[in-house]
Amino acid sequence: MRDKDSWFGQPKGLTILFLTEMWEKFSFFGMRALQIYYMTKELAYSHAHASLIFGAYAAGVYLTPIFGGLIADRWLGRRPAVILGGLLMALGHFMMAFESLFFPAMAVIAIGNGLFLPNLPSQVNLLYPKDDPRAGAAFNVYYVGINLGAFLAPLICGTLGELYGWHYGFGAAGVGMCLGLVVYVWGGRYLPPEASRPVGRAEVAAAGGEGFGTVPLLVGVALAVMLFRVAYEQTGNTFAVWADAAVERQAFGMSIPVTWFQSLNPMFVFLLSPLLVRMWNARAARGLATPALTRMSLGALGIGVSYALLAGLIVASEAGGFAIGWLWMVVFFALFTLAELYILPVGLGLFASLAPRRFAATTIAAWFFCSFTGNLLSGVIGAAWESVSPQGFFLMMAAIAGVSGLLLHGIHRIHRERVAPLAVMVAPAEKSL
To answer: How much of the chain is in helix, strand and coil states, percent to nearest 5?
Structure first.
């Protein structure tokens, strides 16, 4: 599908998807920035208890997309699924304003996210006809939308929650979701048309083995990414608790709200993405393109290095008797984000590029399912925070991320012949960071 007119050199539908995703992530990360503090400070949960809840919720929001993708592909359709999912998510965020509805609210958000999450990005590739050169930048624009919402959320929702009351922050997240729905419904005429009818059993059978030759490869990647997310998700859990207690946050005559640190990650996405794209394009032009799985392996290893840096800082501060300043958090997130850009968007692009057009949402949901087990384990392992020293815990995260990187490297070596053609298929997504 090609629009007669475009916005910013891309189909108008990409701008609609960008803005919808931005507001959805604003609501999602707005609630996430407050969640661990709300449980430990307002509800007086122990950190072990709060960590298990945090991990279960983070896992749940990546389990429900499997069912949401199937429901959309086979019965409901992409657009109705996005609208219904967005309405449920908005309702859940507003329910968070009532302490007695804390657990039901998380369940409603997870169900709504299951319908929303796989069905929005699955429309990106459908905006472009085959071989449209503009498609190379599509996921680049889309990923910026994700991180713009994630950047604004802690600054707005986090500040409201910390300074004026937790429920104001949760309410702001609900307002953000409503704005995303308004944009999506208004811009519906610019989006890909729905399939003539939902996909049924006949279509599944007719698809035969389409894409199934890559299943062993993708299963291996999924297992490695599950392990990676155990370490990755700690920034919203144990890292957030440690930063609140141990980091010197005085600057410019004020105490920096601890939730603001959650904005550093998406901020560095904006700053580093263009530099990486330029470097990778230049290398590709010289015939030196790095294979997708090699990039993902380097990303996982980079996350391990960032956690090792934290452990080293803690050891040095205890030996030297000095406090760890907030500027070190900037350094940590710069390294952490650089590593993230080597693995997460590349993996999303890999699954999106391999998706059969009639089963796009289901295939995207399979990528998000990689996060389910990883996020659940991150909460379980995070519960050990109270019985392990901070430096020991962060070294454990460094080791877990390192093992994930080695697994991805091994998968690349085993599937070297298959990775070569896949590198061509995922090239647009690899440029899209």
So the answer is: 80, 5, 15
Enclosing H/E stretch for 32: helix 12-37
Has residue 4 been placed in a domain?
no
- Partnered with residue 10 across adjacent β-strands are 7
Per-residue pLDDT, 417: 57
Q: Which of 369, 397, 22 is nearest to 223 (CA)?
A: 369
Give the CATH number for residue 403.
Answer: 1.20.1250.20
Confidence of residue 13 (pLDDT cuts 50, 70, 90): confident
Q: How far apart are CA 408 and CA 286, in angstroms?
A: 25
Q: Which two tokens stand for residue 255?
A: 């105490």
Residue 206 lies in a domain: no
CB 114 within 8 A of CB 404: no
Measured in degrees and rounded to the nearest 5, phi and psi for residue 48 equal -60, -45
Picking from 184, 161, 158, the residue whose alpha carbon sits closest to that of residue 82 is 184
240 lies in a domain?
yes
Count of domains observed in the chain: 1
Residue 297: which of 394, 393, 415, 417 has the closest Cα?
415
The total number of residues shown for the chain amounts to: 433
Range of the domain at 41: 9-195+211-430
CA gyration radius, the chain: 21
Tally the C-alpha atoms within 13 A of residue 41's C-alpha that lie toward its C-beta: 13
Q: Which of 262, 248, 236 is nearest to 155 (CA)?
A: 262
Q: What is the DSSP letter of 432?
A: -
pLDDT by residue (tens digit) across 234-255? 988 899 889 988 889 888 888 8
Angle (CA) 276 280 286, round 5°: 150
358 vs 199: CA distance, rounded Å: 7
pTM, rounded to two decimals: 0.72
The number of angstroms, rounded, from the C-alpha of 102 to the middle of its chain's C-alpha atoms is 23
Long-range contacts of 326-330 (CB under 8 A, 24+ apart): 326/247, 326/248, 326/249, 326/251, 326/256, 326/261, 328/247, 329/243, 329/247, 329/261, 329/264, 330/264
Domain presence at residue 159: yes
- For 9-144, list the strands marked E by DSSP: 10-11
Paired strand residues for 11? 6
